[in-house]
């Protein structure tokens, strides 16, 4: 067994251990405090734990399948997220060609370029080529009503759901001296730290939260929850240095950066939901809303994490 496989197994076993403990705690709380399902907080907690089991199993299967499994998983996530995003934006019949190009040209080409490890192209394909050709495709239909708003929303959907999300599997393309064959652990580090930050911010906020950060955007986010979650997740990131090419200090600093980006990503996506008058992006994941509700922190932190690692550790 390779060192990378051993580290991945240890990491997965640790995650399963945490989920088992969380499931037991949720079961006990439900039996004692919500036997009839009347406690909304506990019911929501258990729904989230069940959803986490499903997500961890799916990600675990993708990791076992290797590079192809990870790229396919995130390509599917991008497709599902793009579909959720498009349901909330202003589109007309004249935009159908542009939308079709987004789903069936831009998305698969972006992930093909990832597979081929063509960094020079996949890093600019969507923000340059797709951004220029999308309005050209749309304008050919001749409908100019709210044209700028319509095309900007499609471009933003591509940027968030495809370009930013694709930087998670893009970590597999990095060539880090002395870290060959272990890049999947970078994905595990990114996802674990960012997602734990979200959870810990929620927990710290429930326990000690008093000062709301942005009540109009996300009433549940508090200064106390934000500080507690970011600090806790950064310390966990430092403790996970052994699965990365970083020192404990470097791992902690990177964890701090990506948790900050994840927090602001959540705020930005909450602002879009408030603008559209919805609570969740969808209902794909029980207890978590839509797929974008789970990816919002990751998609904002992934490009930053990718480029920090690429320019400081990659060759």
TrEMBL record:
Transmembrane spans: 7-29, 49-82, 94-113, 119-140, 147-172, 184-204, 225-243, 249-272
Keywords: Membrane, Nucleotidyltransferase, Transferase, Transmembrane, Transmembrane helix
Biological processes annotated in GO: peptidoglycan-based cell wall biogenesis
GO CC list: plasma membrane
One Gene Ontology molecular-function label: nucleotidyltransferase activity
Keyword Nucleotidyltransferase applies: yes
The UniProt record lists the keyword Glycoprotein: no
Entry protein name: Phosphatidate cytidylyltransferase
């Amino acid at each position: 067994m390779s060192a990378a496989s051993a580290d991945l197994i240890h990491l997965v076993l640790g995650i399963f251990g945490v989920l088992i403990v969380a499931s037991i705690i949720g079961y006990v709380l439900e039996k004692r405090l919500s036997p009839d399902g009347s406690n909304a907080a506990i019911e929501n907690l258990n729904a989230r734990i069940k959803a986490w089991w499903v997500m961890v199993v799916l990600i675990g299967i993708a990791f076992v399948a290797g590079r192809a499994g990870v790229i396919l998983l995130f390509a599917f996530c991008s497709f599902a997220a793009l579909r959720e995003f498009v349901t909330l934006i202003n589109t007309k019949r004249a935009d159908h060609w542009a939308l079709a190009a987004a789903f069936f040209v831009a998305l698969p080409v972006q992930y093909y370029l990832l597979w081929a490890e063509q960094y020079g192209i996949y890093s600019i394909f969507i923000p340059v080529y797709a951004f220029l050709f999308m309005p050209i495709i749309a304008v050919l239909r001749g409908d100019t009503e709210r044209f700028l708003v319509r095309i900007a929303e499609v471009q933003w959907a591509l940027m968030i759901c495809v370009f930013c999300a694709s930087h998670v599997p893009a970590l597999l393309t990095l060539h880090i001296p002395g870290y060959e064959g272990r890049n999947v652990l970078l994905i595990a580090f990114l996802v674990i730290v960012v997602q734990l930050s979200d959870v810990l911010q929620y927990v710290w906020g429930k326990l000690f939260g008093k000062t709301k950060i942005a009540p109009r955007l996300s009433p549940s986010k508090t200064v106390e929850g934000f500080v507690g979650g970011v600090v806790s997740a950064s310390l966990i990131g430092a403790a996970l240095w052994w699965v990365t090419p970083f020192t404990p200090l470097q791992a902690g600093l990177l964890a701090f950066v990506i948790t900050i980006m994840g927090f602001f990503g959540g705020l930005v996506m909450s602002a879009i939901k408030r603008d559209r008058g919805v609570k969740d992006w969808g209902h794909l994941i029980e207890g978590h809303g839509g797929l974008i509700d789970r990816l919002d922190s990751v998609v904002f932190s992934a490009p930053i994490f990718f480029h920090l690692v690429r320019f400081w550790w990659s060759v």
